[in-house]
Amino acid sequence: MTSPRPRPAQIERAKESVLTEAEASGCQPPSTADRLIVDSWLRSKSALGMPERITEVPVVAEEELDDSLLDMLHTPMSSFARSLEGSGVGLLLADTRGRILDRWAGTSYGLEHLDRVGTVRGAVLSEDVVGTNGVGTVIATRRLTQVVTNEHYSEFYSTAVCTGAPLFHPISGELLGAVTLSCDAKPQTELLQALIRTLTANLEQHMMTMEQPGTRQMLDEFLRLTRRGDVPVIGFGAQGLLVQNTSAGQFRPLDFQLIRQAAAEADSRGRASGVTSIGKVDLRIERFPGSGNVLVRVTPAAPQRTGATDVHQLRHAPPLVGKSNEWRDTLTRVSRARTTSRPLLIAGEPGSGKTSLALGWAYQASRRVPDTAVMDAGTIPLIGMRRWFERLEQHVEEGQRVVIRGVGSEQRTVDGLRSFIETAPQPSRITLTASVGEGREGQALALSLGAHLVIAPPLRDHPHDIAALWTRFAEQELPGAALSPSPEALRALQRYNWPGNLRELHTLVADVLSRRRSGTVSVEELPEGIRSPRTTGLIERAEEEAIRRALLEAGGNRVRAAEILGVSRATVYRKMKSYRLTM
């Protein structure tokens, strides 16, 4: 039987003793587990100084992360995360340097917790960067560790409970990383230790299975294909799904069954096709004799040439939802802009419905209309500018209307688009979207492109459309769903600030539908941040809006936003946490 953990006041006194190097008589932690925490405090102090010097969690660039471990464990981690539904617990996978490779949560509550403590993909949680925590301390000690509230070295983790365990290679014993459960402080969190032991045992068993000769061969090929491109790659064993890369996360559980069945019926060349929730796909299958393992590479189905690209036709394009004055005025401005000879630029906050406005119907990535092509400017660094513009030119030559998403401030891209628009036969058939503010940046971009500018309103500016949007999103997630918010819940939804706009509302609806499929949603079923919105004064609202606009202008870069505002980066980080800004 384990000894009870010290109370927060006892922890604080012991921590103060360690940090001030004073005599700790009467304050020494009473158990071996607490001795581990004290040793971690000493290492943290040596590396970082006092806790108040830690003001933020650094995040490394995407290209610095090695996803080999994530690719191997994504399937069992995702499966385990589904068991956390409704618990408010988040799940983390980190490499040996304490860098977060991915995070999971059963519901939005768990993700909200991870957002509050700055734990995102690429966040660096090593002990010498943020002090004692349930990732870095696990890696430093190579032991299962639970860090409760103010046992954390940094103050911004003081309301969290993190329970982590090291992950070792089942054959070589090499340390591969850490898996951690993180949540807000709550009763019976000691049970998380048993849960994390079970998870690590299952993960190591999964790796052992992957080490079998036939499976090892499949895994090597899986890793090679995953590194070479960003298409979904899925590995099946005799018992079912074994491994998938992050690109395969777009598929639903039923899709995997359909893909496996289609793969079993592949022709002699290892080719097959099928229909999934994201549309028609082509499959390339490789079998590994003697093991029953199959590796499947999934690509969108080859387009059928009928004068237009027809990948997965949208038979009944859902119309745009919204009857508020703000939304109808925006639709009117878009319609008027289309009567001119210039292209149209729709700017606004992330998730505000810019692409849907550009298309004239509710945008879904898996659906296409025959005479419209949607291109993403964000893919230019992946495929190269020349190839990207060749695709754009092809769509225009085929007579398609083109929507270009995610036009940013990268000057080469803007210059290339301006040159293309100047020579396009019908510039009015080109619509662009950009996540910028309503001020100078959007106007400057529109002037540079020679485009007519329309601003997509944020959801907080047309809250009376939320009821209709809720119904639409519920129908998209589960056709025939009969789920609606109660009057009290609807009022709470309309009061909320919606920093993630329509995308955040859609995520909330999907989360509620994962727990129930019909009936009336009470206000108690909504996340705490929506049930109890902050009451802010005029100055606070102005400050929040200034930070939001600076972040938009800076493309989400906090350092640049701090320069725009003339404040420190730490201040921007603190205010973002205070106002729950996540961009």
TrEMBL record:
Pfam family, one: GAF
Protein name: Sigma-54 factor interaction domain-containing protein
Region (Disordered): 1-30
Domain of life assignment: Bacteria
Database matches in PROSITE patterns: SIGMA54_INTERACT_3, SIGMA54_INTERACT_4
Entry GO MF terms: ATP binding; sequence-specific DNA binding
Keywords for the protein's UniProt record, in alphabetical order: ATP-binding, DNA-binding, Nucleotide-binding, Transcription, Transcription regulation
InterPro entries with a match to the protein in the record: AAA_lid_NorR (IPR058031), GAF (IPR003018), GAF-like_dom_sf (IPR029016), Homeodomain-like_sf (IPR009057), HTH_Fis (IPR002197), P-loop_NTPase (IPR027417), Sigma_54_int (IPR002078), Sigma_54_int_dom_CS (IPR025944)
An example Gene Ontology biological process: regulation of DNA-templated transcription
Residue ranges occupied by any Sigma-54 factor interaction domain in the UniProt entry: 320-514
Record-linked PANTHER family: PROPIONATE CATABOLISM OPERON REGULATORY PROTEIN, TRANSCRIPTIONAL REGULATORY PROTEIN
Alphabetized SUPFAM superfamilies for the sequence: Homeodomain-like (SSF46689), P-loop containing nucleoside triphosphate hydrolases (SSF52540)
